[in-house]
Amino acid sequence: MAFRQKHLLGIEPLHPDEITTILDVAERYVDLNRQADKHSDALKGLTQINMFFENSTRTQSSFELAGKRLGADVMNMAMQASSIKKGETLIDTALTLNAMHPDLLVVRHPHSGAVDLLAQKVNCAVLNAGDGKHEHPTQALLDALTIRRAKGRLHRLNIAICGDIAHSRVARSNLMLLGKMENRVRLVGPPTLVPQQFREFGCEIYDDMAEGLKDVDVVMMLRLQKERMDGGFIPSEREYFYRYGLDADKLAHAKPDAIVMHPGPMNRGVEIDGTIADDINRSVIQEQVEMGVAVRMAAMDLLARNLKASREEAGVMV
């Protein structure tokens, strides 16, 4: 199968055929996860360490569940109380991890590039679970799988990503993935949250929801990342919802069969009306959560295969 990566640090290094491979393997895990026995032995005998330097509910629990269903020994390191807080450098942490001989390392970090630095220093496969404002590759992959299953394809679709683009690693990863798969992407939001430099990704930029959502197949809403904002990016949440929050009137500009997405956690009444979020005919938000486990299982499975192959080639016991 076409997947040549040693790590999954971002969407940028992936070729379209590698993206397709991850999604195809994930489809099999969607089926497995709906069975009474949800377990596989793809990671049997391997150790997975989850290191989350930022709080996370969906992503951390999803990776933990994915590893356990694949048969890995899974350990969650409490990074908020770790030696990093006592002054240990990230490189020293990497050396400590090497001494534990992990096979898969899942990392979320508040600083862009930190996961890549770790990947250079450890002797295992590293998965980026979100680094600063840089990338969140598995979120983009699970979004892609959700779109492909809902629309029957992942190319030549009109997709609007709406909201806080400036602070969103989800938006960056989705822009790269959807662009690689030949989709037309629009960014919609206030100028303070949609910098013009994003045109470099080959997308269109709108500051009006009616124009931005006109005839789109997919509406992807983003959370206001208030924890990353250091200034007055919006006048008020109430005003933001009035102009940019997704409600029935704004959604009416999209295609009648357009799907609604949100990576979560949602701020209901700020980015999205609760009625729209819960509309089983339009919203695929719960499907995104389900696809997350399958995509993370697929990514770890494929990386583990490459890890085992490289160790066998080097004459290391597997």
Mean pLDDT: 92
Distance N to C terminus: 21 Å
Largest sheet: 5 strands, parallel
Order of helices and strands: HEHEHEHEHEHEEHEHHEHH
Oligomer state equals single chain
List segments where confidence is low: pLDDT < 50 over at least 5 consecutive residues.
none
The tally of helices reads 11
Summing up helix and strand content along with how strands pair, one would put the structural category as alpha/beta
Share of residues in strands: 5-15%
Radius of gyration, taken over Cα atoms and rounded to an integer in Å: 20 Å
Strand-helix topology:
Elements: H1 16-33, E1 47-52, H2 58-69, E2 73-77, H3 90-100, E3 104-109, H4 114-121, E4 125-131, H5 137-151, E5 158-162, H6 169-180, E6 184-188, E7 204-206, H7 209-212, E8 218-221, H8 237-244, H9 248-251, E9 259-261, H10 274-277, H11 285-313
Parallel strand pairs: 1-2, 1-3, 3-4, 5-6, 5-8, 6-7, 8-9
Outline the structure in words.
The model has no long low-confidence stretch (mean pLDDT 92). It is built from 11 helices and 9 strands. It is globular, with a radius of gyration of 20 Å. The strands form 2 sheets. It has a 5-stranded parallel beta sheet with strand order 7-6-5-8-9. It has a 4-stranded parallel beta sheet with strand order 2-1-3-4, with helices on both faces. The chain is 39% helix and 14% strand. The two termini are 21 Å apart.
